[in-house]
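TL;DR need structure tokens for one chain.
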Amino acid sequence: MGLDIGTTSVKAVVFTLKGKVVSESEKLITSYYPKPGWVEQDPDEIVQLAVLAVRDALGLANIEKNEIVTIGLSAAMHSIICIDGDGNPLSKALIWADGRSSEQAAHLMEEDGMNIYAKNGMPTHPMSPLSKLVWMKETEYEPYHNAQYFLSIKEYLVFKWFNQRVIDFSMASATGLFNGKTLKWDDELVEKAGIKKEQLSNIVPPTKVLTGLEKAVADKLGLTTEIPFVIGAADGQLANLGIGAISKGEVAITAGTSGAIRQFTKGFKLSENHETFCYAFTEDDYIIGGPTNNGGIALQWLKELLHYQGSFDDFTNEAERVTPGAEGILFFPYINGERAPLWNQHARGNFFGMTVTHKQEHFVRAVLEGITFNLYQIAKALEYSVGEPEKIYINGGLSKSKVWLQIVADVFGKEVYVSETHHSAAWGAAWTALVALGKVTSFDEIKKNIPMGSPVIPDQNNHETYLEIYRKYDMFAHDLKKYF
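>> reply
TL;DR here they are.
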């Protein structure tokens, strides 16, 4: 089983050893917005949702509890919770989308941005727990001053279920307090946050086996106390693993509400202009990439704005009525602020090139193309460190759109591969657990165990057209930066 704690939901997925989905259960997470720019989630609510998801997935699989070999864990990055000495939360979980530390992030970047990035491989941004901790320190945030520990949501779940404070390399990387070269908590960064190393968890590899599940928890889950869990990693690393994008030249794009483009690499590598992150997965393997705030959320925004009453699929299919380039409209998809490639929470979206002849379908195509150009721009930054991509793998909700998949293939000029299951992070977590227990020999072996559909082939003429359009997009995107 893979247990994947995302931003919008908790998913528990039961797989065969060949990667076929046996059953799945998804429970939606409530986000709270106490003030403009603040985004919080309830850690106890998420733990309870995880219990329900695991229990329901087991029930739907119609199997005995001893038939589950192991459970691997995956989680979204950048959450932080203040915890007391008894393991109780003093605060809600501040998640990656929380922007309350914008001022602190800007000050950190101005004061010491080059040095911070050189240590932690994370462009300085309000998503970072480092920035959030500085905000807590400077605003006299009471839970911060009373906290015994600071944990991410996955650490909190592990603490509750196993009474252990451990964090894997990738989730540690996502705190901004972790040194990507030494694979240890960094003294200088921890000091900037105003906390002590003892308040952070012990750092372990993704293959760390967790045993001794609390009896009360096991009963609620419908499992035995003997079942081995494996700590796994962050959802980004595991999504790459779960879709098979693990070799040189293989790039994975995740496109759901937000999005990301990532590639595995050997060693700690940084981009020249702080455009990409580099987070550890194992002692040798790192993932380099860039997250965008604006994936499917931009399309959903347009659908609601236009009061479109049909299905999401019908709405995206409107784009097929328009030729590549949307007859001159360019869309810069920064409607939710932006992480990569701008790293500016104050960025704002724009349409350029509108005329009275443009209709609904033009705007749909422009939004799909804008999302793709933004990802392509991040991919160009990746090339500085890892070279040009050779093959594109895609997962996430937008991967269900055939018209968008064709746009991606045409913009990148590469074949696009999509797994038959969209649970790549959960399968990556489950596979990591199998590696940890010695049930399979290596991470690479997963490539033989991913049900993959036929590739989407790029249209070379469209690719040449898109390269011309992208040159204009890239020029305007760089000009726009100074206005945010």
